[in-house]
Amino acid sequence: MARMNAAVVTSFGEPPRYQPFEVPQPDGADEFIVDVLAVGLHPRVRSGAAGAHYTSSGTLPMIPGIDAVGQRADGTRIYFVAADDVIGTMADQALASARRSIVLPEDADIAKVAAAMNPAMSSWVALRRRVPIKPGQSVLVLGATGNAGAMAVQVARRLGAGRVVGAGRDRGRLDALTSAGADDVVQLTGDGDATARALAAAAAECDIVLDYLWGQPAQHVIMALLTARSDRSREMNWIQIGSVAGPTMELPSVALRSANFRVQGSGQGSVAGQAYLAELPSLVAEITAGTIAVKATTMPLADVEEIWSRAEVPGERTVLVP
Ligand SMILES: NC(=O)c1ccc[n+]([C@@H]2O[C@H](COP(=O)([O-])OP(=O)(O)OC[C@H]3O[C@@H](n4cnc5c(N)ncnc54)[C@H](OP(=O)(O)O)[C@@H]3O)[C@@H](O)[C@H]2O)c1
């Protein structure tokens, strides 16, 4: 068996170690091996490596990494998504297939693509496939100060939103969102009632909410938005995308009776793989054109164990390079 170097998780809850591992074998005619060029260290990668993502099978040892930029034997560079949660992309080599990859244009910046596809896809797919946005609609991004949330502000604008409001905790990154396309920003503070009032004033008339938070902040905000809405029979589409503030919340039944309030999620499972694949080329084009701002910090895959325990620099995405 051929060997390669990889980030390997042998115990959930401990960082991966850089160590030799067997090169995975293609399973079926459409799978092939690629040399990995760049892998994003997304929150989704961390939850998978902790065995805590809803798609986790609990199998160990496992190689983390859900997507990557790779190079085929003929030199073609591709963006691809890993087939399962056991043999991921944080390795010298990984398995790809035509059903889970696209060829990158010559001018694509591989670190930016590796950094941005996962966070940018969250809003792009939500606004194209779950609740297709109509020109001029108003969007609230709840949790707009992370990578995905900040990109969501830019994606909503790019896809035709008439008004975009960003809400998040960090004042400095909220201010930066104004130059990135937000019409208004609201700071989420420890005072839940005051925050809910401020959000209602800024976004009660929104058509779509892109929610990266869930938990207490979302719970506080929902009734405040619906109560302040001028016409409650007008659709408000709440798209659940991330849960950085908590996995659960209490939703009063009255929210669903007293308003045309529609809740759905967007992620692996609720959107078909083929639908994701169809959106990838346009997203790469936006990243390459610079319409979606990306800060990628490249680091050696060999240092993965130490990098894993470091706090992320807010607004930047770590990209590991084999
Ligand atoms: N469903 C999908 O398709 C999909 C795709 C990609 C990502 N996601 C999910 O989206 C979420 C964000 O991903 P990301 O890449 O943007 O991560 P990130 O860059 O690490 O950003 C997370 C941000 O969440 C904020 N935050 C953390 N705890 C919070 C709290 N209690 N209340 C309010 N804000 C809080 C922090 O901003 P402040 O410092 O300002 O608080 C932080 O910057 C993750 O849950 C990820 O799994 C989903």
The assigned structural class equals alpha/beta
Percent of residues in beta strands = 15-25%
Characterize the biggest β-sheet: 7 strands, mixed
Give the oligomer, counting copies of the same chain as homo and different chains as hetero.
single chain
- Strand tally: 15
Bound molecules: NADP nicotinamide-adenine-dinucleotide phosphate
- Helix segment count? 9
| End-to-end CA span | 20 Å
Q: Which segments are poorly predicted (pLDDT under 50) over 5 or more consecutive residues?
A: none
Q: Any overview of this molecule?
A:
This protein is an alpha/beta fold. The protein has 9 helices and 15 strands. It has helices at 43-49, 110-130, 147-158, 171-179, 192-203, 215-228, 253-257, 273-289, 304-308; strands spanning 3-8, 17-22, 31-40, 67-71, 77-81, 93-97, 101-103, 138-142, 163-168, 184-187, 208-211, 236-240, 261-265, 296-300, 317-321. Strands 3, 4, 5, 6, 7, 14 and 15 form a 7-stranded mixed β-sheet that branches. It has a 6-stranded parallel β-sheet with strand order 10-9-8-11-12-13, with helices on both faces. It is elongated, with a radius of gyration of 20 Å. It starts with a strand and ends with a strand. The structure holds NADP nicotinamide-adenine-dinucleotide phosphate. Residues 42-44, 118-119, 122, 143, 145-149, 168-170, 173, 188, 212-213, 217, 241-245, 266-267, 312, 314 line the site of NADP nicotinamide-adenine-dinucleotide phosphate (NAP). NADP nicotinamide-adenine-dinucleotide phosphate binds at residues 42-44, 118-119, 122, 143, 145-149, 168-170, 173, 188, 212-213, 217, 241-245, 266-267, 312, 314.
